[in-house]
Amino acid sequence: MKNIIITGATGFIGRALVQSLRNSTNGRVIAMGSETVDLVNRAALFDWFEKLHWAFECDQIIHLAALYKAGDWPVHHPATQFHVNMSMNVNILEAWARFFPKAKFTSILSYCMYPSHGEPHPETELWGTEPEDYLFSYAMTKKALLIGQRAYREEYGLDCTSVVLPTVYGPGDSFAENSHVMGALIGKFVRAAHTEVVEVWGDGSQEREFLYVEDVVDGIIAAADNSKVDVLNLGTGQAYSIKAITEIIRQASGFTGKIQHNTTKFVGVKKRLLDVSRVRKELGWQAATSIEQGINNTVKWYQTH
């Protein structure tokens, strides 16, 4: 029986993780969303943790909470991202050490932390490199979180690990036009199934790695339970062009109209993917869902919700 606290529990990944853990564990799963307590407010967070401390023993803390939005939003709000994310991370680390030092801490990171090039990124590349400039503030707060975990581990002997995620998609995602590329594309094609044109941002040549949300949840749980290393890339190790993804979505949604590429829109880096050899070696883990199956599942879900 395990008792688990999850921050960011009302987000896309958080909701799926909470549901999975509540279905599979006999312990308590405490879902922390922004309406539960403001992680930026140190006094409020410590008060919440202190009350919880007297109520039960915590075995794991899984930290997903972060302020981030897709598209060019990070370009225009670097200070907001820096303040909010640094505050949340510093506060949750200190709350962990003060109130639940026996709990294992698992943080969720992003592959935007890596530099911009087209080769698979190994975990060792997190250090001595800089991320893409437009994501610099957000990415560096994630690196600072890793440094914070190391500091608390070394000074207090606490147990922690981290997982780095690629672009996550699946049922329950945001399908708004300004969402990340997979959610935005699925939303566009499903909504336009009987119209003549769908606009795709960019020329379709940019490449990304995608991970289905059920595989994300499975990997996070595996790392939280079994990882003995500081950080693991969690992914498929396979990048797909937006053109290829668009074709799979087109077939899954039944769209028969014209695809129009808008090359004036912001599309980010040219290519990004992860080296997943460490997670396979350390945990024997690999993603179970093919890109075709994941997209089909997601399209069907969105069509019925």
Automatic annotation (TrEMBL):
Gene3D superfamilies: NAD(P)-binding Rossmann-like Domain, UDP-galactose 4-epimerase, domain 1. Residues 4-235 form the NAD-dependent epimerase/dehydratase domain. This is NAD-dependent epimerase/dehydratase domain-containing protein. SUPFAM superfamilies: NAD(P)-binding Rossmann-fold domains (SSF51735). InterPro entries: Epimerase_deHydtase, NAD(P)-bd_dom_sf. It comes from the Bacteria. One of its GO terms (molecular function) is GDP-L-fucose synthase activity. Pfam families: Epimerase (PF01370).
